[in-house]
Fold this sequence. Notes:
Layout: H1 2-16, E1 21-22, E2 28-31, E3 41-51, H2 55-71, E4 75-81, E5 89-94, E6 100-107, E7 118-125, E8 128-129
Antiparallel strand pairs: 1-3, 2-3, 3-7, 3-8, 4-5, 5-6, 6-7
Amino acid sequence: MGAETEKTSSRILEMLAVKGKVTESGAMTAPCTDSGSDEKTFRARHPWSVHQAPFAELKAGMERLRRELPRDGWEIVKDGPDSSTAKSPQLVAESAGREFAVDVRLHRASSVGKAPELLEVTVDSACFRSE
């Protein structure tokens, strides 16, 4: 499931179409904490970000994602500010068969911790059973 999660991440990066630096991390698995899951039930998670691009370009990438995800069979389930103090724009969507969910947040640069402007993306798979 990790490879499929990374493939989904690559498709989202294509839709963003932002020329910036992308963090290089692979998908990892973690136990599912949903009710009814057991020690053999996992989900794949692939967190990454796009940075070193102008804020206007990052914002435009998020707008493209808003348009392209539904065209690609995704349902947007949240589109608004996240719960952080900064109230960063957040877009959450689920794939057509609910095999994947994506959470995208647009962050402005911050002097606190010298955080750069970036698009933070996390792709999660549905829970799957490891035999």
